[in-house]
Design goal:
The protein is an alpha+beta fold. It is built from six helices and nine strands. It folds into two domains: 70 residues, 434 Repressor (Amino-terminal Domain), CATH 1.10.260; 126 residues, Umud Fragment, subunit A (Ribbon). 24% of the residues lie in helices and 19% in strands. The relative contact order is 0.13.
């Protein structure tokens, strides 16, 4: 990255506008960095690497270009919101309600907000995988504890990973949607779990568009 003596101050200004500690920004950026190193980047004449700059920008809910622009012209600064570009981790029994009406006021107190694996659309939300039904012996796998990102605005197609319900919106399931002849089935990646045929009461809540590991290093399907 081209040396810029003030990008650190732009990072610091955004972090403080969010009311975040140094540790909070490190955690939101999903990088291995000490708070001392971050403090040095914010206050000293030292430019971060491209990787670090991009990670910190994403953690702050912005881009490197915006940080550089704010560094050159402090009057261009716009105060960020707490959950800029983040999406909520929604309780499973509220997934259908969130997909229909994404209202943060209905979320339980203390709900987590996380960075998605890609730029989210308006209604994307996250769920924590809660069982071993989608943990495959090999290939793509969704172990318990991982975070999936769900897009209610995306049309479900055969072979998509989807979240839906079989008639009870408060009891959604996470499966792979498969087509056998003219019949749709819900398939688990774990062969110990049986397939379920899609009936008239089945409704797709959203298509899974991303996956993040339990240790929060990120990843995409």
């Amino acid at each position: 990255m081209q040396r810029d003596s003030t990008i650190g101050s732009a990072i610091r200004k955004r972090r403080q506008a969010l009311g975040w500690s140094l540790q909070r920004l490190v955690e939101a950026s999903h990088i291995e960095m000490s708070t001392g190193h971050l403090a040095t980047l914010e206050t000293k004449d030292m430019a971060p690497s491209v990787y670090v700059a991009e990670a910190l920008a994403k953690g702050l809910g912005t881009t490197v270009d915006v940080l550089l622009r704010e560094a050159r012209d402090p009057t261009a600064f716009e105060a960020p919101t707490e959950h800029a570009q983040r999406v909520p981790v929604v309780p499973w029994d509220q997934a259908a309600k969130w997909a229909a009406n994404p209202d943060p006021r209905r979320l339980p107190a203390g709900s987590s907000w996380v960075m998605p694996t890609d730029t989210p659309s308006g209604k994307v939300f996250a769920l924590k995988v809660r069982d071993e039904s989608m943990q495959a012996p090999s290939g793509i796998s969704f172990p318990a504890g991982y975070t999936i990102f769900v897009d209610p605005g995306r049309k479900a197609l055969a072979n998509d990973f989807i979240v839906g319900h079989l008639g009870d919106p408060s009891a959604p399931v996470f499966k792979k949607l498969t087509l056998d002849g003219s019949a749709y089935w819900l398939r688990s990646l774990n062969p110990q779990f049986p397939m379920q045929q899609v009936g008239d009461t089945f409704e797709v809540i959203g298509v899974v568009v991303g996956l993040r590991a339990a240790f929060d290093k990120g990843g995409v399907l």
